[in-house]
Design brief:
13 strands, binds adenosine-5'-diphosphate, four-stranded antiparallel sheet, alpha+beta, about 450 residues, 12 helices, five-stranded mixed sheet
């Protein structure tokens, strides 16, 4: 079955987010630490230099003596700050020493710092020696013991600790936000596709009455939806055609068969004399059946995928005139006049099939024109095409039916009621043949005033 699209997208987003968040947190942490260390190293160096500077100011050049009280004050301040100070005079005699002054406090402070710093850098206390100068004159030396290359006092340590914690919280928060956003995003991306998949499944189960709304912001999805709708539509139409075909064929067969059966039974049971008229009636019904079968057969052949055309050069006007002659009797029966006009037009076509098209159109014109009506046929020769126009002043086609008359088995209500029509296949066949030639068939019609069919065939 495979994993669902939604969970896959979620998984991808989650993986990307985790990698990015980890990377960013790691890099941010490293960058902050590095910057901070540099700052602290400078800070500590500055601090030591400040102590030395302060000490230098405590030497009285006139009396050549040190102000011991102030040295003590600086020493104690420095000690609390983490710097263990020892001051010597020029002879190397110790003037002030933090360790000997308060050994316990010194040890305590050094232990605290070592303990605090043990997790950050594993160095230890280093001793830095400075010459104490007054102008060019050396007035003594100082040694400062400090945790190197830098150390943090309690506040700084707390600050760094808080900063790491904040970074961790930001990282976790971004993870949570991303997971929520990713899940919503995955849902939004997957939803229309999942819906499409479900609908495709429904369509494949034969339920075509489903339509997808084209309302996403994604062009590709909208294209997919419209193709699916199109597919559902045409499948639904095919299904309708199939049902209609069965119903129509059954209907078309039933009427002549019932008539035939009752007539034949009546004659065989001796109820009816088998007169010529009655037998002719039976022949008519059989003819109707045969023509239906021929129509269906023609349609089946056309619907086979590749309609093979045997093209030869013909004169369109000649073909039209011949068909008119053949249908003259039919037209005469209804007192309909057929007038052919136009110029010869030589085109390359499958002659038999084009004859079939003209027969279908002309016999329709006769069928759907009332007694005493008129049919005009024109043949035109244009630069790269031949044109046939068949116009009648018959019953016409209503605007509501017009878009459908070329569809299989489509008959207007009028032609159904009048029982004049065939099975609604003639125009379908005509259209397929013309389109197979790369031509076009169109109709203009108004109910009650007549119809005009135009066939255009490329040369
Ligand atoms: P049919 O065999 O029923 O004539 P067609 O496919 O030839 O089938 O025509 C389809 C329908 O179009 C007809 O049933 C009829 O309602 C309408 N039609 C076709 N030609 C004409 C016409 N010349 N005048 C009026 N209606 C027509």
């Amino acid at each position: 079955m495979g994993k669902s699209l939604r969970s896959q997208i979620s998984l991808y987003i989650l993986t990307i987010v985790l990698v990015v968040v980890t990377l960013v947190s790691f890099l941010a942490n490293a960058a902050v630490n590095q910057q901070f260390e540099e700052y602290m190293i400078n800070q500590e160096r500055g601090q030591r230099e400040k102590i030395v500077n302060d000490l230098e100011n405590l030497y009285n050049g006139m009396t050549r003596s040190w102000n011991l009280d102030y040295i003590h004050a600086i020493g104690m301040y420095s000690l609390y700050d983490g710097y263990v100070l020892t001051v010597y005079d020029t002879e190397g005699k110790m003037i002030w020493d933090a360790a000997s002054h308060d050994m316990a406090l010194c040890k305590q402070i050094m232990r605290d710092i070592t303990e605090r710093m043990s997790q950050r850098n594993n160095s230890g206390f280093t001793t830095y020696s400075y010459d104490l100068m007054q102008g060019d004159r050396k007035v003594g030396t100082a040694s400062i013991q400090a945790y190197g290359p830098y150390f943090l006092n309690e506040n700084e340590y707390q600050f760094i600790d808080d900063l790491s914690e904040i970074l961790l919280i930001i990282g976790l928060l971004s993870c949570v936000v991303s997971i929520v956003a990713g899940t919503i995003l995955a849902h939004r991306i997957a939803r229309p596709i999942t819906k499409t998949a479900e609908i495709a499944q429904q369509i494949s189960n034969g339920d075509y009455n489903i339509r997808l709304e084209n309302e996403t912001n994604t062009r590709e999805l909208n294209m997919l939806f419209s193709s699916m709708n199109h597919m559902a539509n045409s499948l639904s139409r095919q299904e309708q055609y199939r049902k209609q075909l069965t119903a129509d064929v059954a209907h078309e067969l039933r009427t002549p068969l019932t008539a035939l059966r009752s007539h034949l039974e009546a004659m065989s049971e001796g109820l009816w004399e088998p007169s010529v008229e009655r037998l002719n009636g039976c022949v008519e019904e059989v003819k109707r059946l045969s023509s239906l079968v021929i129509d269906l057969d023609g349609l089946a052949k056309l619907e086979q995928e590749n309609l093979q055309l045997k093209k030869i050069e013909v004169n369109l006007l000649e073909i039209v005139e011949n068909v008119c002659v053949n249908l003259e009797k039919e037209a005469d029966n209804k007192n309909i006049s057929i007038l052919v006009d136009g110029v010869p037009s030589n085109i390359l076509v499958d002659k038999d099939r084009i004859i079939q098209v003209i027969i279908n159109l002309l016999s329709n014109a006769i069928k759907y024109t009332l007694e005493g009506g008129k049919i005009n046929v024109w043949v035109k020769d244009e630069f790269d095409r031949g044109v046939v126009i068949i116009e009648d002043n018959g019953i016409g086609i209503s605007q509501k039916d017009l878009p459908y008359i070329f569809e299989r088995f489509y008959r207007t209500d009028q032609s159904r009621n009048r029982k004049t029509g065939g099975a609604g296949i003639g125009l379908t066949i005509a259209k397929s043949i013309i389109e197979a030639h790369g031509g076009k068939i169109t109709v203009e019609s108004n109910k009650g005033t007549g119809s005009k069919f135009t066939v255009v065939l490329p040369k």
